[in-house]
Write a structure and sequence with these properties.
single chain; about 130 residues; about 35% helix; 3 helices; mainly alpha
Length: about 130
């Protein structure tokens, strides 16, 4: 008897063949910042790899790398995301109502659902035999 076992969970994504940073294009603005020497070295190394892998200029590779890294950091920082969702100035925030909810009147008749329809068991065909 042959058993067909299904694997549980999400199917594996295909293996990447190029840099992760190549993706969406965004509008640009100029920002100047300082980074540690170690980070600058790794950035230069990674940028060279992106440049060679994708056949793009060094400036384009650097832009895409830094932009992607910052967007991912902002997206993955759960504490910062929670902080963003809460208003920073209590004076401008909407007032919080803390009164007790009004009692609900009992419903005259509860809503009813239609009766369930019979279904064929999984794996069986119309004539009752197993597939």
């Amino acid at each position: 008897m042959e058993t067909k076992e299904r694997k549980v969970g999400r199917p594996k994504a295909p293996a990447r063949t190029g840099p992760l940073v190549l993706g969406d294009d965004y509008a640009r603005t100029k920002v100047t910042l300082e980074v540690s020497q170690q980070t600058a070295g790794v950035l230069a190394e990674y940028t060279r790899w992106v440049e060679k892998s994708a056949g793009i200029s060094a400036n384009e590779a650097r832009f895409k790398t830094v932009d992607f890294a910052l967007r991912e950091t902002f997206r993955r920082d759960r504490v910062w995301q929670a902080e963003r969702r809460t208003p920073s100035d209590p004076a401008t925030a909407a007032p919080v109502v803390t009164s007790a909810p009004a009692p609900r009147a009992p419903a005259a008749t509860p809503p009813s659902l239609p009766p369930p329809t019979p279904r064929e068991p999984r794996g069986s065909s119309a004539d009752g035999s197993r597939a």
